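Hey all, quick one. A colleague (J.T.) asked me to put the 1-deoxynojirimycin job into the tracker so the inputs and the structure tokens live in one place instead of scattered across chat threads. No bug as far as I know, just bookkeeping. Sequence used:
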Amino acid sequence: MPTWWKTSATYSLFPASFSDSNNDGYGDLDGIVARLDHLAWLGIDAVWLGPIYPSPMLDAGYDIQDFCGINGKFGDLAAFDRLVAELHRRGMRLILDFVPNHTSDRHPWFLESRSSRDNPKRDWYIWRDAKPDGSPPTNWIDHRKECAWSWDEGTAQYYYHLFLPEQPDLNLRNPDVVAAIEEVLAFWMERGVDGFRLDAAMNLVEDELFRDEPMDDDIANGPPGWMDHLFTSDRPETHRVIAGFRRTIDHYPERLFVGEVIAPLVRMMEYYGRREPGFHMPFNNQIMKTEPWAARKIEAAIDQYMILLPDGAWPNWVLGSHDVSRAATRLGPEQARVAAMLQLTLPGTAFIYYGEEIGLGDAEVPPDRIRDPYEAYGQGRDPYRAPMPWASDAHGGFSGVEPWLPLAADYPTRNVAALRADPGSILHLYRALLALRRDKPALQTETYRPLRAEGDLLMFMRPHEQESLAVVLNLGSAQQEAVLPGRGRIILSTKLDRAEAAEGRLVLRPDEGVVVALSDKSPAG
Ligand code: NOJ
């Protein structure tokens, strides 16, 4: 039997936006507990919870003030324990967001660190003198594309931050910091947590010599003057830190360690670990970021990923996250269904972003309701983080009051209750796909065989000695004809209205995908 996470569909959930139990407009842990039956009905195996720790919430909780507590907006440790127990009772697991690259500037560690140059925690963060002319120590820029160094008046030095100035970077070259972080991991695993998603994994360590980044004048990488982040990202020492975390995690059985690695594929694959243990999986954003959504492009993106996957490494697939425009907005409601079939029939673990199961699109967020500080830098992410619509009543059944972010405008018709009542809805498609993953051994292995296809068609096989499956997807809006690799039977269509024998030529309707169970055990292809 493969380890639990290999066949799992993990549901990634933004805590403030899932369900509000105490009517303050913010989602919370008890709200999540109240909705677990939805996830169980859907067929979800694990929940990845966005950050729930005490935080000023400048960066939606990725600015952490206490790694071992619960944000009062979301509940308390007792509510957390209830969530763990209720998930486990339903056979589901819990993965926590884990953010050791930086803290909030209100974290007691930073308050101590900035209190004086000789404070014992001074070296827990990255402090440097100004250059003789008073300018910052290097040319490094942060995610806002502004200077990554902020000046501290009190101690007359600069500190480094990859993200907001209110998110100082921890110094993970310091063994005391690493030890403190490893204690955090143990704390949560003792409380029953089944795994972690490591934030900003490529950026844990910076160049020891504090060298300036080179300018990259290659027009393909960005406009002239674009900076090549060679000294602040993907440093070799990062792997040592990740290996240490992984060893801590491996002290506890059956835990999962996933990493956010935004890098070219070849570099990303390094994060499975080479000389030292790495992640069980770095997230694979291939089908999320490939543009345009065109069969030959997607086919090539899948192929490249599968080819570069190291021996023994397990694949995974992501369609959306809290940092990118939602799949239903990027691809349109019809192709969102095709994308779901693609994601859930490819080999490996699937990460579903909350709302994808109802085809939720980006919400309109008027200027006076903006929450994300990155909006000021043209990178606002609020529209992808809107509340989950559960019903058509006021506030979408999410809360009894106006939610912290506006609901998507179509919530009166696009909500869990309405789609559950409609047997042809995308929600029922997700449920059917997740059931298929559990039922069909061919969907539980890492075996993938591409099939030659043309135009808007994308075809592949999932061979298995018991029963092989062919997946045939029409990524376009015109009818297509596919040639099947053998005789079989359509067992699922994205339109949920078709189950019939199939042989030879198969006509796919616009925006339709089908799974065909092949009767010949070893068909050609
Ligand atoms: C990556 C997270 O996905 C993003 O939402 C966050 O702003 C940064 N890391 C900083 O923690």
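Adding what we noticed when we looked at it: The radius of gyration is 24 Å. The longest helix spans residues 175-190.
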